[in-house]
Amino acid sequence: MTQPHALRTPSKATSQKPLLICFSHLRWDFVWQRPQHLLSRAAKHYDVLIIEEPIFKADIQPHMDVSSRPQGVTIAVPMLPEGLSHEDVIAEQHDLIEGLIGRESNGSRVFWYYTPMAMAFTSDFECELCIYDNMDELSLFRGASQQLLDLENALFSRCDLVFTGGMSLYEAKKSRHRSVHGFPSSIDFNHFSQARSIRQDPLDQAHIPHPRLGFFGVVDERMDIDLLAEVADLRPDWQFVMIGPVVKIDPATLPQRPNIHWLGGKDYKELPHYLSGWDVGFMNFALNEATKFISPTKTPEFLAAGVPVVSTAITDVVKPYGEKGLVEIARNAEEVVAKVEMMLARPKDAWLAKVDRHLAQGSWDKTWGAMHKLMLDVTGDTASERPAAASLPLYATTPAE
Q1: In this structure, what are the phi and psi dihedrals at residue 309, rounded to the nearest 5 degrees?
Q2: Which of 17, 191, 339, 387 is most open to solvent, judged by the fewest CB atoms within 10 Å of its CB?
Q3: Helix (H, G, I), strand (E, B) or coil at 57
Q4: How confident is the model over 71-94, as pLDDT tens digits?
């Protein structure tokens, strides 16, 4: 639906909840990850409006496509005609957002940024609280621009709170703002632990023999596809089940082997059904600029599913998961093979008990609760009464700490 007029609350006009407006570079309907976990919980306390990046189509008038989702959030997508200049794209987004929410704030309004690029068209809008949930080091991703770095600096200047998606990213950002808090990937335990009791394979996996090594998530430049090919060649009797959409890399570059199965993207609710049939989780992340600060959400998700994991040496996986013996770390194809053979041979009970003790320490509910407390601490005081930086907690922890 097109929404041409100012929107103070994206759901009911009579709502008494404050408005939380999220500016996101990720599509809500793409892969269920950190923004979805947090903002679906935020919807209990706020009217949540998520403004995504534009979609371009031929021969259309600029308008905002607004729709609701079952999680209680509203999605707004700027629809723009093809062929606009960069400056016009910025100007059109500014005008569409102003038409949707108004430039001035009517009461309590929170801005929640996932992408600093949105600062280019939102910096003159008012809000009572500004948050940067810095889930990845976007500047290190393929195609990042100098403009992204400049706008991130502007966002750091504007925001009241900075959350980071992992502890290595927290260490990298903690000196750039007075109130930085590390919130590593958490876990929807009840959802993924279903995999421990599911006994029926999905149809497109049922024919694949065991042992199966599985991956789920976005397939992009963060995946070490050469490592995958090497391990598949070393153990042609092992089967590699790869689930997820292919983004920013040419699908033709993905290794093709009889024992590598590219099953494409799956719905979040389907994932436990696939994981239930895997013997080992394979987190074959490349060690490059794009993975320098990642804190993979799938680490605790594999563990909740009861699937042993072998991973490359991603900093936020090595500490704490590798150091605690919850995940095996491998640095080359031969080490992957040795670690997997060890995991296939060992009894799971003692390992799983250790996993459950660790995962019991946190959840996405606890993560959101800690974030929300920090938000209320800021909005509950006048600017002059806000706590000094020295008295703020350095970071709040979830299971990845």
Answers
A1: -130, 140
A2: 387
A3: strand
A4: 999 999 999 999 999 999 999 999
Q: What angle do CA 107, 100, 40 make, to 5 degrees?
A: 75
Higher-pLDDT residue of 286, 295: 286
Residue range 114-138: mean pLDDT, rounded: 92
The amino acid at 134 = N
Q: Which helix (H) or strand (E) holds 250?
A: none
| CB burial string 46-69: b at 16+ within 10 A, e below | bbbbbbbbbeeeeeeebbbbbeeb
pLDDT of residue 205: 98
260-264/239-243 β-pairing: parallel
| Per-residue pLDDT at 15 | 67
- Tell me the two tokens of residue 245: 């959409």
CA-based end-to-end distance of the chain: 42
14-33 pLDDT, tens digit per residue, is: 468 999 999 999 999 988 88
Q: Which residues contact 390 (CB under 8 A, 6 or more apart)?
A: none
Q: From its phi and psi, is residue 194 left (phi > 0), alpha (psi between -120 and 50) or beta? A: alpha
Alpha helices in 181-321 (DSSP H): 189-192, 203-206, 225-234, 271-275, 298-304, 315-317
CA 327 to CA 299: how far, in whole Å?
Answer: 8
CA–CA distance, 279 with 264 (Å, rounded to integer): 20
